[in-house]
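Practice problem 4.
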């Protein structure tokens, strides 16, 4: 269990983990305020973007980007919050680089600042924020979490996150971190149900932020295989250090590797995946 860390979670935090400005369109609400829409159905919500009040650096709201590296830093801050039980989070850039297997210190510092700026700029429809302020003095990072964030997180609901989450190559496996996080949430919310380790590929495509079949068809590169099918299995296989996956037809027949490789989109979205968590065996 040494390779697992406690991460407190809430519905609002999970909505923020769905924000990806590379795949979401910036909108304005009825009052003209810039925002992004996350979630779906009854869980749909708006995430607003405003210039951070306590930021004195060179970045502006035009530099706002919220992507996989932002999720990773946010997860690390949540890990430290769970460990230390304080709204003042302090860590060294070196510590973060070691956790994420990063090698370029200059690039890491630049990315941390951009991601902290993004976390400082977002707010929820109720006005709640995540970070009040941050500083980066002498190779260290100091973050002041907002009162809203601390109250929202509580100290009860948490998942156990495999540390492998941090070292996923986010350029090569863009969707893998989202897939892992969703599978962990599914396991948590269904912990008392028999289907806690089962999920449809259709659901994973939606929560993993893959393009929809309609989006693919309306682009120049409209290959469903190249844009959805191949990336899905490649990103899911990137999680082989933490889980094994078996594929079943909707009638419950286990599919062979050859049958899985031969799936077209229509058959693929009807497949159910059974998950065998490797860390469960180590308890």
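Answer key:
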């Amino acid at each position: 269990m040494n390779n697992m860390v406690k991460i407190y979670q809430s519905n609002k935090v999970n909505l923020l983990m769905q924000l990806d400005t590379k795949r979401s369109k910036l909108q304005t609400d009825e009052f003209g305020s810039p925002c992004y829409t996350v979630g779906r159905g009854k869980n749909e919500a708006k995430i607003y973007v405003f210039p951070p009040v306590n930021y004195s650096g060179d970045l502006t709201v035009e530099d706002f980007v919220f992507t996989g590296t932002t999720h990773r830093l946010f997860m690390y801050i949540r890990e430290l919050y769970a460990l230390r039980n304080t709204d003042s989070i302090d860590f060294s850039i070196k510590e973060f680089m070691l956790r994420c297997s990063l090698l370029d210190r200059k690039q890491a510092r630049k990315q941390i600042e951009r991601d902290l700026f993004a976390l400082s700029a977002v707010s929820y429809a109720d006005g709640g924020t995540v970070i009040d302020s941050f500083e980066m003095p002498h190779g260290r990072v100091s973050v002041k979490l907002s009162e809203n964030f601390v109250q929202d997180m509580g100290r009860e609901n948490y998942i156990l996150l495999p540390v492998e989450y941090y070292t996923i190559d986010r350029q090569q496996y863009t969707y893998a971190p989202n897939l892992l996080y969703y599978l962990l949430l599914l396991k948590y919310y269904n912990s008392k149900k028999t289907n806690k380790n089962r999920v449809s590929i259709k659901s994973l495509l939606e929560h993993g932020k893959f393009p929809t079949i309609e989006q693919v068809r309306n682009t120049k590169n409209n290959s469903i295989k190249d844009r959805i099918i191949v990336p899905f299995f490649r990103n899911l296989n990137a999680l082989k250090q933490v889980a094994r996956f078996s594929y079943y037809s909707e009638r419950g027949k286990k599919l062979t590797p050859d049958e899985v490789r031969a799936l077209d989109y229509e058959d693929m979205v009807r497949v159910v995946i059974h998950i065998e968590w490797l860390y469960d065996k180590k308890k």
